[in-house]
Amino acid sequence: MNLAVEYNCGGIDWEELACVIEAAGLAPHPPETFRKAFENSFAVVFLRDGQRLIGCARALSDAVVQSALYDVALLPEYQGRGLGRTLLEEMLRQLPDGNTILYASPGKEPFYERFGFGRLKTGMGKFSDPERVRQRGMLE
Ligand SMILES: CC(C)(COP(=O)(O)OP(=O)(O)OC[C@H]1O[C@@H](n2cnc3c(N)ncnc32)[C@H](O)[C@@H]1OP(=O)(O)O)[C@@H](O)C(=O)NCCC(=O)NCCS
């Protein structure tokens, strides 16, 4: 593997990124929606194997105290090889020393616990498609 890490959106093929996110099982959107979402984010990380995009993550942040992670995804064939750790460490390094939240996919909570995340007791979310979120087991 020829791993490369990128921290800006300059070289991203948004169709390829949409495929990575869909293959990882996260919420799909049109490539143009992902382009806007990533370009409007506070911090982004992309992983490549050679030229191939294999992973991504993005964060919103006020740059002082509060941040939120989204679209943490690796192609399935690259999962379980330590690259999720690289992705998350490279993302957290760019965020302020404050509070960081995320919605964990069911079963992924132990992955985040390794990086100091805890399970929220009073987390609330308002979703554009609550039924989808409910079906994924993330909403009561
Ligand atoms: C979440 C994701 C990025 C993690 O990447 P990964 O490559 O599988 O994780 P790594 O191999 O780097 O694992 C890092 C550590 O977390 C642990 N870990 C990873 N997934 C785990 C899980 N589901 N349960 C328990 N531990 C887990 C690993 O054992 C490893 O532990 P170690 O450092 O002590 O050896 C990846 O699985 C993925 O893209 N999943 C599909 C999309 C998704 O669910 N994203 C999260 C949305 S919230």
UniProtKB/TrEMBL annotation:
SUPFAM superfamilies referenced in this protein's UniProt entry, alphabetically: Acyl-CoA N-acyltransferases (Nat) (SSF55729)
Question: Which Gene Ontology MF annotations are present?
Answer: N-acetyltransferase activity
Extract the Gene3D superfamilies matched here: 3.40.630.30
Instruction: List keywords of the entry alphabetically.
Output: Acyltransferase, Transferase
* The keyword Membrane is assigned to this record: no
Can the keyword Acyltransferase be found in this entry's annotation?
A: yes
Tell me which GO cellular component terms the UniProt record holds: cytoplasm
Q: Which residues form the N-acetyltransferase domain?
A: 5-140
Record's protein name: GNAT family N-acetyltransferase
